Amino acid sequence: MKENVLSIINENPIDIAKLQAIIAEMNTVDIADTLENLSKEKLVQLFRCLPKSIGGEVFSHMESDEQQVIVEALTDNEIGEIINKMFVDDAVDFIEEMPANVVTQVLRNVDAEKRKLINQMLQYPDDSAGSIMTTEYVDLREDMTVNDAFNYIRETGLNKETIYTSYVIKRDRLLTGVISAKTLMLAGPGDSIGTIMDTNIVYVNTTDDQEMIAGLFKKYGFLSMPVVDKERRLVGIITVDDIVEIIEEEATEDFEKMAALRPSDDPYLKTSIFKHAKNRIVWLLVLMLSATITGSIIAGFEDALAALPILVVFIPMLMDTGGNAGAQSSTLIIRGIALGEVDTGDIFRVFWKEIRIGLICGLILGVINFARIYFMQGKDLFLSVTVTLSVLATIITAKSVGCILPILAKKLRVDPAIMAAPIITTLVDAASLAIYFNIARAIFKI
Question: Contact, 107 vs 79, CB < 8 A?
Answer without folding.
Answer: no
